[in-house]
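Support request from a user on the community tier.

User writes: "When I paste my structure tokens into the form, the page sometimes reloads and wipes my input. The last time it worked, I copied everything first. Here is what I submitted, just in case something in the input itself triggers the reload:"
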């Protein structure tokens, strides 16, 4: 999880190549700045890759960007959604209302939308986050200090897609050869799109040029290994014929193989640091998260960012248990891990699967 230090300037609408446009859609009050929505020109109307955050100013930017590219929102033929986070799927419902466009998403992400759309009162949301952090090993003082700063209101519900994406599918972009690549990790159903005859990868949040996507545990797969999935998905897209990456944030880049290796090294360094931390004795999940190096000092992160950091640490610990390098102390609260011990230990039980769900954070921190 890397956090941008300042808001990224919103770039202009840009023609990437003949018939393909990049339209920046602002994310209000978010250091990421904007989502890059891509629009294919087809004889059935434009097909979008993602839609942007559900906000009136974001909608106006999307509509204006489409006009600048020579399109109308009412003519949109379809939306291919990389994943269900609200800065990518938030405006899909508005697009559908304006145009009748189909909305396509991987079923693993589509299945999570009803849970994401449950509105919670502010106090209930804050209390839920506080309980999660207490369970990880945070003290009452550490939680109380940050409750007010991290208050957050409910999100509007997002539309349920009416089409499903499958790995390797040639998607419905008339006149273009576009293949869906299932790349789980940042979300269970994250999907990239490869433009086969142009050597381009529409990467969503999977591979970004200078920041890394949040990889956390998901309610949708309590026994999963999202970091293991993510690392495998990085290798999956590292294809020699891909010469340009079009990400959902920041800017496009042409060094995919190098960037894949950098991101893998980043996570391997976190895994190694966690193993070293456990070498001195058992640690709570909170202690392990605090021991890692984040983009800002730990005490400068607000409660929501602490939740994201703890959740990402949980995903790393799940991966370490799968590698046989760590074990969770069974039945112990707060959640505590120790170095894996191959010798029988009768003092307490071990859980090498780490069957704990810490909840996926939908706050999209990087």
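"...and here is what came back when it finally went through:"
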């Amino acid at each position: 999880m890397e956090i941008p230090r300042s808001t990224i300037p919103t770039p202009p609408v840009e023609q990437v190549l003949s018939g393909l446009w990049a339209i920046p859609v602002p994310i209000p009050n978010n250091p990421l700045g904007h989502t890059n929505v891509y629009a294919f020109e087809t004889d059935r109307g434009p097909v979008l890759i993602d839609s942007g955050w559900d906000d009136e100013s974001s909608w106006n930017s999307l509509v204006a960007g489409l006009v600048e590219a020579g399109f109308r929102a009412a003519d949109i033929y379809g939306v291919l959604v990389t994943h269900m986070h609200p800065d990518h799927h938030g405006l899909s419902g508005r697009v559908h209302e304006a145009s009748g466009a189909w909305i396509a998403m991987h079923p693993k992400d589509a299945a999570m939308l009803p849970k994401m759309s449950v509105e919670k009162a502010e106090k209930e949301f804050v209390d839920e986050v506080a309980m999660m952090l207490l369970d990880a090993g945070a003290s009452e003082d550490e939680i109380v200090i940050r409750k007010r700063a991290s208050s957050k209101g409910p999100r509007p519900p997002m539309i349920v897609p009416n089409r499903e994406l499958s790995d390797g599918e040639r998607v419905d972009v008339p006149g273009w050869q576009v293949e869906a690549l299932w790349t789980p990790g940042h979300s269970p159903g994250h999907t990239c799109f490869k433009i086969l005859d142009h050597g381009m990868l529409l990467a969503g949040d999977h591979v970004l040029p200078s920041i890394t996507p949040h990889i956390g545990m998901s309610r949708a797969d309590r026994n999963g290994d999202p970091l293991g999935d993510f690392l495998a998905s990085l290798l999956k897209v590292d294809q020699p014929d891909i010469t340009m990456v079009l990400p959902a944030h920041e800017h496009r880049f042409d060094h995919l193989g190098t960037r894949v290796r950098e991101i893998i090294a980043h996570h391997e360094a976190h895994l190694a640091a966690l193993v070293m931390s456990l070498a001195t004795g058992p640690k709570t999940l909170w202690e392990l998260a605090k021991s890692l190096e984040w983009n800002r000092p730990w005490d400068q992160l607000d409660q929501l960012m602490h939740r994201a950091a703890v959740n990402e640490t949980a995903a790393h610990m799940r991966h370490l248990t799968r590698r046989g390098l760590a074990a969770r102390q069974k039945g112990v609260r707060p959640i505590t891990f120790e170095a894996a011990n191959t010798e029988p230990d009768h003092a307490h039980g071990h859980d090498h699967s780490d069957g704990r769900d810490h909840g996926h954070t939908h706050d999209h921190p990087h």
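Agent notes: The reload is a front-end session timeout and is unrelated to the input. The radius of gyration is 21 Å. Residues 47 and 318 are 38 Å apart (CA to CA). Escalated to web team.
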